[in-house]
Predict the 3D structure of the following.
Amino acid sequence: MVPLSYYLALSGFLFACGVTGFLIKRNIITIFMSIELMLNGVNLSFVAFAAQWHALSGQVFVFFVMVVAAAEAAVGLAIIIAVFRTRETLNVDRVNLLKL
Amino acid sequence: MLHLSIFLFFGAICAAGAVNLLVQRHPINSALSLIAVMVSLAVEYLLLGAEFVAAVQVIIYAGAIMVLFVFVIMLLNAGVEERIEGSRVAMILGIPGMLVGSALVAWVLLERSGTSSVAVGSLPGYPKEIAGLLFHDFLLPFEVTSVLVLIAIMGAVVLASHPDSETQQKKES
Amino acid sequence: MYALISLVKIVIALVLLLTAVAYSVWLERKVVGHIQNRWGPTRVGPFGLLQPLADGAKFLFKEDLTPPYVYKPLYIAAPMISVIFALTSIAVIPIGNSITVGGIRTPLQIADVNIGLLIVLGITSMGVYGIALAGWSSNSKYSLLGSLRASAQMVSYEIALGLSLIGVLIMSGSFSLREIVDAQGGTFWGFIPRWNIFQGQFVAFFIYLMAAFAETNRIPFDLPEAETELVAGYHTEYSAMKFAMFFMAEYANMITVACLASLLFLGGWHGPLFGPAWLQELLPIAWFALRIFGFLFLYIWIRGTLPRFRYDQLMSFGWKFLFPLAIANLVITALIVALKA
């Protein structure tokens, strides 16, 4: 038996790491990976709560999150490639043409 | 006891991978630690009884999405992350923000979560039951996400195709 | 007791798999030799049967070279990743029904899990990292090109592979490899076996076959290691045991794919049973081994016959032909199953 709060703590930790990565990382690909990390943390809490309330719909939700993550990764990486083609950099600080 | 030790072992891998993603400067190392996080999360799902979710986690997340990331990292030859002036602002704002956020999450967890615990496989997510839900109760969201995926595919193709090659094709035709 | 039985099964399965890997290399050299009007290996042992041992010894004693400018942690990890994932998937593959040894009846499978097929797919989809990282960490343009090709190709063909399996899944209604095989027992009109390939899944079998060739990087889809353009592709910079690991991974993957093909489409271990009781216990294993041998032979035969595709041909074949075909097969199978029900 594992207390449910352990699962939630792990999920919260993953989510916090994702947020931190999103904020402090400068490489656009790593920023994207931080978003995936956040989604993973959320998925864990979905599955944990599904076990807690004996409702399978929590697990079904994970599939929707995964589909959205896959769609987001495909479009996002395409955008990254397009950005790299025009700016020749992956650093988000150097993609600043719209800034004064 | 065994359950707890397996949970702690893979949870530790998860946490270490997540921290390593932040510490590493090279994107490919970050990607690999994210893969480690995803695979050990799949084991956690198995512990919770969600076997189908675990398999799909490995196949889709670790086996397809992350391959795409690694592929793009290799394709663009992404090097070590460089840091310039703006990065320091991000560090100054980001780390306290993360601390506040995690403190908030910890507070909510400690305050609100009861003493309930889950046993191994307490809710077995067999493919049949999940399919029943997915194709019956959640049919509309399922169809909507399929449209979403279709749009994403088209968007990815349009965005990633080289602008020069399109004009060349027009000239040729 | 359970742990002991599992341990014994793991050891037996590993020994069997590694022997099969070694001898499929021998088989390949022999068959390709005969196709090209040569003899193949003949010197070591009768019919060159000890050649795999000699090869292994040679790989062990070669200098283990690490080129400068490689990214060392990943350069060392990549072959290990490849071989680990290639060997792991045997864990859920049944090689026969159950067997009684010394009063204990046990299934011929390390772990009988509900989602066996998904686990095999997941493990093989992780195998691509070995190849991708090998190419990237070698810091050589040939390796990088090879691994870029490999990852694009494996991701693309995995879709066709997965879709071709769904038809079979619809017909058997289970992810468990054992149940899929059990659903294929018996015959139509007393002589045609009820294998999935004879139940209308021959299109799926064709798609599976093509996608499997691409997944295992074999001719005619061996673009990742096309030696005429890329020296040796992703393992250009590897030598000695590290190279041998890639080699083992490739052949172990071939065997896994052959096992899956026979389990899903060719009726697994079903076949005529006769003779005394002990023979009836062992015959299913023999029938299964025969199917795998046939599949490996087909692999080698095609390698000896067909030239390599061009890369754009490979991609358009996968996306514009196999993928729509797989979807059409899926829709038609689903319709037929729905109408029958």
In short: The two ends of chain B are 70 Å apart (CA to CA).
